[in-house]
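User: Predict structure, ligand adenosine-5'-diphosphate.
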Amino acid sequence: MNFFSLDNFNLNNKEMLNIILFGAPGCGKGTQAQRLAEHYDLYHISTGEVIRAEIKQGTELGKSMEGYISRGELAPDSIVVEMVRDYMKSHADKGCIFDGFPRTTAQAEIFDTLLAEIGSKVDVMIYMDVPEEELVKRILLRGKDSGRADDASEDVIRNRIEVYRAQTEVVAKHYTAQNKYSAIDGVGSMDEVFERLCAVIDAKRQ
Ligand code: ADP
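Assistant: Predicted complex:
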């Protein structure tokens, strides 16, 4: 193997990294996912963003999901998985950061199969640990300029955190069993948290 093919090999490895950013609502997944996508040249998919875009465009899909979002409940697995499947059709040429997905064990199981079908896999799930009171504070602050109705009501925020504890937290077990789970402290400056995430990802790339 010459230097050039070795180079290519490393490059491909880097590009195909699939990362799940995991944590409760308000833990900072969205902000960090954007930065990481730029830094590592990866796509970034936020299922919440995709759903909000559908609602804004007034599509049938959007209309069917409006109620769930406004109550702080999860959208049905089948719909969300189809959205991700569609996305992967045109975004399988490099790795992705998944932000807000998978959010149930059923989603994780179907996701693994979906990735396997296209010859891919999840490389790492990184949990961003932030205490509950800090989560509520951050979301209420974000709600002031995000314009997101689900960020404006403390009741809806608390319900989202409850739904996270009841249905989403368990997804960590799924990836722990696959030896793909890592956790970082999500409290600190944006740069500090970013560096902690990069340390986990860089270790995976070696
Ligand atoms: P947050 O993490 O702050 O709750 P998101 O943008 O990730 O923000 O999600 C907003 C809402 O979109 C969720 O409360 C839920 O209703 C819906 N949603 C997003 N991703 C999923 C998913 N993977 N499965 C089901 N519902 C989802």
